[in-house]
């Protein structure tokens, strides 16, 4: 009996990283759910208040317009959110949306099949995303630098290719235009497409190992690499997905507005990043969800509709978007400091209890 007792006494207390990680993850999940719930409450209060002031605002057509306005931004924001979760950013999404919208329209103009035109936009967007992903993931070039460069490169090539040409409603098939406006009651077909994409990407990030590895990569890339996460492949996949969704958004943008030219998508990347950050996705990576990004997109586009409905000049839209962005970044910073302090306090308590 002496030997086992001696061995046990000689053992040093071992930390429990899985439990600590689980505690940290659970705390972060609760904070994120509260953040998304807060956005939902703000959105609901804003819409109800507007309905009280303007009783026709939430009519069937009004709801359809709200969803149609949000659909394109939701699609691009979902892809952008995945990239940001990995600790990167894609500033080229507006240019990708523009060039894919015109590519889809050019195919349709020459009698192409609508399904093939959408597929072309998605494949072209994925290829452009892959180019970004290779430079960032394999080349180890900062994503801000890479995508800022490709933003201008794609826009320049788009301008050279498109020139003064335009895709107008008269050049598009009637069925394609109908798909961009019709729906089931107050729910547009485009919103249903966006909902399917949102659910699928959210499920992937939550329930698949490769999806969860995106969070690990954004939290600490070096630690993730040491833990066996294929960092380059995950970064590449995130950019490919972002590009593909920007391409899909480009095709649906064409269906929604029945118009595309060389200026389509210019400046859109700033709105997308704002939606993602307002939706609670940490700009430094490793936190947030695509559902929050979608709520952020819905909030920003709803503001665009609410202000004119209550008689406020649309000039204020960009100012309000900027204020929301600054508030979101400030809240993220405060939450990060509070969570870090709480986790340090719990770690000290755990060490004190173990030593005792």
TrEMBL record:
TM ranges: 37-54, 66-85, 115-138, 186-205, 235-255, 267-286, 293-317, 323-343
Chief place where the protein resides: membrane
Keywords: Cell inner membrane, Cell membrane, Membrane, Transmembrane, Transmembrane helix, Transport
Topology term for the membrane: Multi-pass membrane protein
Segments of skewed composition (Low complexity): 1-13
UniProt keyword S-adenosyl-L-methionine, yes or no: no
Intracellular or extracellular location(s): Cell membrane
A Pfam match: BPD_transp_2
InterPro entries reported for this sequence: ABC_transp_permease (IPR001851)
UniProt keyword annotation of Transport present: yes
Renumbered residue ranges of the record's region Disordered: 1-21
Stated role: Part of the ABC transporter complex LsrABCD involved in autoinducer 2 (AI-2) import. Probably responsible for the translocation of the substrate across the membrane.
PANTHER family listed in its UniProt record: ABC TRANSPORTER PERMEASE PROTEIN YPHD-RELATED-RELATED, AUTOINDUCER 2 IMPORT SYSTEM PERMEASE PROTEIN LSRC
Assembly, per entry: The complex is composed of two ATP-binding proteins (LsrA), two transmembrane proteins (LsrC and LsrD) and a solute-binding protein (LsrB).
Protein name: Autoinducer 2 import system permease protein LsrC
Organism of this sequence: Catenulispora pinistramenti
